[in-house]
Amino acid sequence: MWILFVNGGWVIVAIMLARLWGIMRLYRLQGKYAAAIEYILLAIDIPKDSEQTPKAMEQVFATMTGAHQEISKRAKYTKGEIQMAFSCEIISIDGYVQFLIRTPKVYRDLVEGSIYAQYPDAEITEVEDYTRSMSTQFPNDQYQIWGSELQLVHNEAYPIRTYRF
Predict the structure, then answer these.
(1) Which of 9, 75, 141, 157 could disulfide-link 81, Cβ–Cβ 3.0 to 4.6 Å?
(2) pTM assigned to the model
(3) SS3 of 6, please?
């Protein structure tokens, strides 16, 4: 092993260490970039007598995906730039069901505009994060919490909806 290392094997080790250093640097940059993104939580109240089909909400999601853009390699490796994410939640607090969207502050107008385009009578308000007042130790006697995660059955190349409304 020593002879292999002395006769050029050190180059492979040096390349592996340089690659590892580059990956660690990228993760550190992306962590700083992600920490600097300011998020807001928007509560959406849609009137119960709304006659919109689920297709309207699909259009809202389609509009929000327009915010995702390709990140150049230069921005990725020098600034640590990452895709900003949206989170859509349905919550019930004391029996009141509400739809929430967590969005980067810079995309607030995009989210509000896409919702008002499909639901003109909707009320959108900025609310505080409801999770900050909750305990971090579960299970406990005070909260009844249930969560779920959806997982695709097919490859991501297939659409989520494969039928027409």
Answers:
(1) 75
(2) 0.72
(3) helix
